[in-house]
Amino acid sequence: MNGLRIVILDGDCANPGDLSWEEFETLGEVTVYPHTRDDEVVERAKDADIIIDNKVNITAETIAALPSLKYIGLLSTGYNVVDIKAAKKRGIPVCNVPAYSTVSVAQHAFMLITSLAAKLFAHAMSVNDGEWGKCRNFCLYKGEVIELSGKTLGIIGYGSIGRAVAKIALVMGMNVIACKRHACVADKSVKLVDNLDALLREADVITLHCDLNAGNANMVSDDFLSKVKKGAILVNTARGGLVDEAAVRRALDDGRLSGYGADVLAEEPPVHGSPLIGAENCIITPHVAWASVEARSRLLKAAKKNIDAFLEGNPINVVY
Description:
Layout: E1 4-8, H1 11-14, H2 22-25, E2 28-32, H3 41-44, E3 50-53, H4 60-64, E4 71-74, H5 84-90, E5 94-95, H6 102-117, H7 120-128, E6 152-156, H8 160-171, E7 175-179, E8 190-193, H9 196-202, E9 205-208, H10 222-226, E10 232-236, H11 245-253, E11 257-262, E12 282-284, H12 293-311
Parallel strand pairs: 1-2, 1-3, 3-4, 4-5, 6-7, 6-9, 7-8, 9-10, 10-11, 11-12
């Protein structure tokens, strides 16, 4: 298949300009749009053989309106933005990129954990704001600092990222407990449990690394938070929809949680705000845990490899 027409719908998500699309350009004509609205897809991809997408919705109606379309490549692991049934009916492979950001997300999760344990931003701001300079003591306390060594980390979702976080925690001297939904093999130093309540009772720090589905939406609720250790730290680098943000705000305000860190929110970007923005002992980052330059470089290389496999007649990472 020569002279391919490739349209990249939202290139800025994975490549805001610090990487290159040159490998894709060896395949044919490449058009890169920084951003695309859902209602712009048909016009922009009307002659495309291949669509490359991250977060733009590709509906059944969109697929039906693109007669030249032969392949949909995702610059992500998740694939809920594509109507998979419609693509399959047309014989269009939809291929994702699994596990490219495991190390980066694990690093970010632990950055949130250590920052909350040290009250990092409160202490740093006390210096920037001149408060330390006015202090009569050589040190200034802006909240209780805790050692993680000897504390228990509870991991909800023991997949590749959960396991990577467990390795870091073990090096830090933490005890690690993980809640598993499916049978899996853990490091002998990790205690696996089936009962979520048991994990909530034991863990000093809880970190979410599970998929979002109909069964666990808003799983972090008032009831969930009533079962955690008083003063626990909670971190979410998985999906914003796992968390009832108002319930977490209440738990922060009443001291049930000593800290909350998240790289995800229910609405992204938070155009309508969030109960968590501005909360004390709360760190929110703008969905960048996955986005190290190394992870994004792996992502682009894997997406190109997916296309190569499709062109050779043996598509890989097909999600249906």
